[in-house]
Amino acid sequence: MSVEVAGTAAAKPDGSLKLAVPRGSLLEGTLDALDAAGVDTAAVRGESRALIFPGERITLVTMRPSDVPTYVEAGAADVGITGKDVLLEQSDRMAYELLDLGYGRCRMVLAGRKGDERLGETQRRLGMMRIATKYPRIAERHFESTGRQIETIEVKGSVELAPLIGLADGIVDLVATGRTLEENNLEVREEILECTARFVANRVAHKLRGAEIDELTAKLREATAG
Amino acid sequence: MIHPIPPGTRDILPDEMRELRRLHLALIEVFESRGYGEVATPAIEYDDVLARGDGRTADSAYRFFDESGELLALRSDMTVPIARLVASRFVDAETPLRFCYLANAYRAVRPQRGQMREFAQAGVELIGAPAPAGTVEVIEVLEAALDAAGLDRAVIGLGDLFRQLLTEFGLEGEVRDAILSRLATHDLVGLEAELSQAGIDDEHVATCVALSQLRGGREVLEEARKLGGAAVERATERIGETFEALEAKGAASRVQVDLGLLRDLGYYSGAILEVYDPALGHVLGGGGRYDDLLRRFGVDLPAAGFALYLERVHVAKLEEESRRGAPS
C-alpha cells in the first residue's frame, strides 16, 4: 500500500519563517552570524526604524533580548536568538534551545565594592546579604545552591549604582569586559556562570517547520563554529 | 462595581459558550461512537489518593482542609482520577475499558504569563489494551477528534525512545534522569553537554544527539536505524511497530515520528503523543502510554490516553475557519 510521508506536506504553514533578532549588544554578532548563514540582513543594518524586515524565506523581527522568549513561546516568532542569561532568567518559558552560537560571551558574576568587607560582614552578622540585580531568579538560584540567604532587590537600570550608595551589599550582573565595574570601583567576587547567544525555536514550529528550522540550525552551526 | 476573579480563571459569555458547547458535543460524539463512555469524577479528591498517581507534588496546586481536617486537592488532570475510579469500581470488569471525559482541571500558574489556572480538557482513557494495538486505537480516536474539530492540518507527534535508548547505553539512575530532564525542558544544548559528561563513547553521544533531532515520516525510522547499531535497533523497535500498525490501518498520514519527543517525567512509560496545529503556537494537547499507573492503585493493567485543551482547540478551530474563509 502506498503511504504518504507524514507530517510535512499536510502541515506546512504559510508565510516566511519569523526570526526574533535581539537589539542591543547581541545585534552585531547576530547579524554577522545570519549573514554567514546566508540570511540577508542589509535592511536591519540600515538606518530604518522599522521593527519588522520581511523576507521571502525569513522575516526578521527586532526586539529587546528579554522579549525574545515571550514571542517565541507564543509562536509570534517561530525562532529567535537571545542570551543564555535571558533564557535562564525566564526558564519557565517553553521553547526549544537548539544551538549555542558562541558569540556574545559574557560572565554572570557577584561583585562588590573594592576592598569592602560588607558582603562578608552582613552575611556573618545578619546571615543574609542584600543583592541588587536585574536577574533575581539567577541570583536566588546561585545563593540557594551555595546555602546562603539573600534579600534580592530588583532594579532596572545601572545596577552598579546600588552598592555605591548603600542600596545593596553587592550586585549580580553580566560582565563582558569588566570596564564598568572597574570605573565604578567594583570588583568581581564570584563567578556564577558564562553566557553566550542561543538559537531557540517555538515548540510547535520546531515540529511543523522542522526542515526549514533544521536547515537554518545547521547553517548557523557552521557559521559560528570555531 | 468591579468584583475581581483570580488570575488564570475566566467567565465564559453566551456567544463563546455556544461555540464551545458545539465543539464539546462533537468531541463527545466521536468518543461515544467508538465505545468510550463518558464519566465525571469530583474536582476535589483526597490529596493522598491523587499523590499516589503522580508523585510530583508541584502538580496539585490547590490543597485545603475540609471540616474534619482531611487534606483535599483539586485534580490537575483526569488520568489519575480515572485510574482511581477503575481500581475502585472496575476491578473484575472485562477489559479493555473505554472512558471519555470533558472536565475542568487545575494547575498552578506563574503570574502575568497568560496561563490558565482552571482549564477544560476533553480526552479518552483506554485501559487494558497493551501496545501497539492500544496505542494505535488511541491515535485513531485522536485523529477522529481532530477531524471533528475541523483541524485538518493538525499533526500528531509520536515519540517513544529516549528512556529506552539510554538504558541500552547503560545509563541509569541520576545520570539518566539528568539527561531526560534536559530533553523534557527542550534544552538540546544542555542535552549534548549532559550526554558528553555521562561517561559513554563519543560515538554514542553523537548518536543520541542526532536521534533527539529526528522527526518526520517513515524515513525517520530508517535514518535512526542507519545511525546506530543494535542498541538503536532495539530502542526503535517499539515505536516502529506502532507506526507500522498505523500505516497498515491507513492512519499514519498525520502522525509525525519524533524521536526526541518527551513531555515531562510524570507517569508516561511508553509512547508519547503531542498535538500541534500550524494556526497556534501552543501545543493543543498530548497523551501517551502509562502502563505502570494503574498498578499504583492496585490493578495491573496497561493503559493509554490523550487529553486536548478544549479552549486551545477552539481557538485553532476559529483560526483554521477564517483561513479557509468559511465561517461555521
Explain what this protein looks like in three dimensions.
The complex is a heterodimer of chains A (about 230) and B (about 325). Chain A is α/β, with parallel strands linked by helices and about 230 residues long. Chain A has two domains: about 120 residues, Periplasmic binding protein-like II (D-Maltodextrin-Binding Protein, domain 2), CATH 3.40.190; about 90 residues, D-Maltodextrin-Binding Protein, domain 2 (3-Layer(aba) Sandwich). Chain A is about 35% helix and about 30% strand. In chain A, strand 2 and strand 3 form a beta hairpin. The longest helix of chain A is centred in the last third of the chain and has 15 residues. Chain A is elongated and about 60 Å long. The N terminus of chain A is likely disordered. In chain B, strand 10 and strand 11 form a beta hairpin. Chain B folds into two domains: about 190 residues, BirA Bifunctional Protein, domain 2 (2-Layer Sandwich); about 100 residues, no CATH class. The longest helix of chain B has 20 residues. Chain B starts with 13 loop residues before the first helix and ends with a helix. In chain B, the strands form two sheets. In chain B, strands 1-5-6-12-11-10-7-9-8 form a nine-stranded mixed β-sheet. Chain B has a three-stranded antiparallel β-sheet with strand order 2-4-3. At the A-B interface, strand 5 and helix 9 of A face helix 7, strand 8 and strand 9 of B.
